[in-house]
């Protein structure tokens, strides 16, 4: 094969990747959402899960959450209000900023986070069956190289 044919072939492969990756991501979000609902957390949407991703590693302010989700502070505050009403998060005083409040997961929020982790593991089991464990590890390593931030945020 010549260089022009190799280049055309790689462009075709490259052009086919975005819809496949986006479709796989969409399927994964739907599977996790269904798994969370099946585990008794029926009052949440996938956007809440993206918020929990930011809250789980450590407490955050509404501003931190807004930046993570790519929404306004007002929209993030409305989401926090909803999650407080549903018992998933609570607001606490900020230890160093009297004007700010921290948003923290409650026990119910942590239970939901564990349910989402279980649902995510369940959702990728077919990938391991299809690819085999060695190729699945290679895929993970490839994705780490390609998406080093590992940032999970919804795209609206």
TrEMBL record:
Residues 14-148 form the HTH marR-type domain. One of its GO terms (molecular function) is DNA-binding transcription factor activity. One of its GO terms (biological process) is response to stress. It holds the Pfam family MarR_2. InterPro entries: ArsR-like_HTH (IPR011991), HTH_MarR-typ (IPR000835), MarR/SlyA-like (IPR039422), WH-like_DNA-bd_sf (IPR036388), WH_DNA-bd_sf (IPR036390). PROSITE patterns: HTH_MARR_2 (PS50995). PANTHER family: MARR FAMILY REGULATORY PROTEIN, TRANSCRIPTIONAL REGULATOR, MARR FAMILY. This is MarR family transcriptional regulator. The lineage of its organism: Bacteria, Bacillati, Actinomycetota, Actinomycetes, Kitasatosporales.
């Amino acid at each position: 094969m010549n260089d022009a044919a190799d280049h055309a072939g790689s462009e075709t492969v490259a052009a086919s990747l975005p819809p496949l990756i986006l479709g796989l991501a969409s399927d994964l979000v739907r599977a996790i959402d269904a798994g969370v609902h099946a585990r008794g957390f029926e009052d949440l949407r996938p956007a809440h899960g993206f918020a929990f991703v930011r809250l789980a590693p450590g407490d955050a302010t509404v501003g931190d959450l807004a930046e993570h989700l790519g929404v306004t502070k007002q929209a993030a505050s409305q989401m926090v209000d909803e999650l407080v009403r549903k018992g998933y998060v609570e607001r606490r005083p900020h230890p160093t900023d009297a004007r700010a409040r921290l948003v923290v997961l409650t026990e119910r929020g942590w239970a939901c986070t564990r349910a989402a982790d279980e649902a995510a593991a369940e959702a990728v089991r077919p990938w391991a069956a299809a690819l085999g464990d060695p190729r699945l590890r290679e895929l993970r390593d490839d994705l780490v190289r390609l998406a080093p931030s590992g940032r999970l945020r919804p795209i609206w």
